[in-house]
Design a protein that fits this description.
Layout: E1 3-4, E2 13-14, H1 21-29, H2 33-48, H3 53-61, H4 68-72
Antiparallel strand pairs: 1-2
Helix pairs in contact: 1-2, 2-3
Length: about 70
């Protein structure tokens, strides 16, 4: 397994499997699992209602378009 080594208060993150949106929200924003699930569900609803997935991903989570595939269930 390859890792990315970081300094200071940063952690070593395994690079073989990317974090899910839920994991990012819990780690970065300190949300509980339930709070993160609610945010992801709301973002999925917005997409189902016809909003642009990339914009939703950025507006809701501040994440790059790589995470759009997770929201689309691909």
């Amino acid at each position: 397994m390859s890792t990315l080594k970081l300094s200071g208060k940063m952690r070593v993150i395994p690079m073989d499997k990317p974090e899910t949106i839920k994991q990012v929200l819990m780690r970065r924003d300190g949300l509980s699992a339930d709070e993160a699930d609610e945010m992801v569900a709301y973002a999925k609803e917005r997409i189902a209602d016809g909003e642009d997935p990339e914009e939703v991903c950025y507006e809701e989570f501040g994440l790059e378009p790589d995470y759009v595939f997770e929201l689309l269930g691909w």
